[in-house]
Amino acid sequence: MADHQISSEEFEKFREFFYRKTGIQFDASKRYFVDKRLIERIEATKSDSFRSYFTLLRFQASGEELQLLTNLMTVNETYFFREEYQFQCLVESILPEMVANKSDKKPIRIWIIPSSSGEEAYSIAIYLMEKWPGINDWDVEIISSDIDTQILGRARQGLYSQRAVQALPAPYLKKYFVRQGLEYQICDDLRSAIEFTRVNLAERADTRPYRNFDVVFCRNLLIYFDDLSRKTAAETFFDALNPGGFICLGHSESMSRISSLYRIRKFPTAIVYQKPGESK
Known about the structure:
Blueprint: H1 8-22, H2 31-44, H3 50-59, H4 64-73, H5 84-101, E1 108-112, H6 119-131, E2 140-146, H7 149-157, E3 159-160, H8 162-165, H9 170-176, E4 177-180, E5 183-186, H10 188-193, E6 194-198, H11 204-207, E7 213-218, H12 227-240, E8 241-249, E9 263-266, E10 271-274
């Protein structure tokens, strides 16, 4: 087997190409991670060099190899009830204010991106079931999206390790999961209640159908973007939200440093961002 090496020039070519396609930018500290996965795919596709693999990546009509590589390059590290204070903010502050202003009785729509393997979407569903009295009066639609098709398959399967569920209160684990050997599978009712979809935030054609959301959760994704991609993402979410809709970011992220489109809302348990205008 050939001993493939990625030169600095090739790394730069790939980095620029991948950024244009996905909005994700790798800095020099990720060089080992990127090289390792590129070499894996060069060998798996039986390409004789980076150059021939890169040609495949750019010009394959189906885009299958680019999707496969994207699946390998995206990081999917999460667990149930991660940054729970924002779920608390959702049920104690955001939703009560929203339903007070929402006269049309249309379903409340929540968009989660990136989905990863589904922990966040299922956590929100569990939190609403357990903590929000309004769940008895309102329909809620939860759509969870990711660029990684492989991870979406795992989200739909809903099978998790002990580590992924360790922050869940024991009664919730018993109520919403079925033990499968050493793992836990989310119950069928919740699996069927959430729609998992593939979306590339950097592709306008992908995001255009996503409209009329009341709340967006986009946590710990924008830290992987550069300033231009963050601004584009902020505009995408602005278009996706109803007037008065909210966006929740990760604890180290701030919309005020990205875009002036939103106003800051400080609630008792979290700071979130709101699209100006009255809720529908």
